[in-house]
Write a structure and sequence with these properties.
single chain; 83 residues; Translation Initiation Factor IF3; 4-stranded mixed sheet
Amino acid sequence: MTGERVLLDNRRTPCAVGLIRADETIGDLAPGTVLEIWSKDRFAPMEIPLWAERDGHRVHLRGRAGWWPLRYFVFEVTRGARG
């Protein structure tokens, strides 16, 4: 994968599998690339920032999108040099 921005739609993915997919996807990206993650997992606002910080990435946007009952979380994670 190449480019400055990649989308990972985890809205139909269970919590743990979503983090595994995010880790695998960001590992294939060049440092500085933004991975946009969409998730309906209610624990994502806690887990994604913890995962990103642990692996040296930076979460620089968090928000919600969509309308109830289809609302989901949006994260932008910039891949760090390590990770």
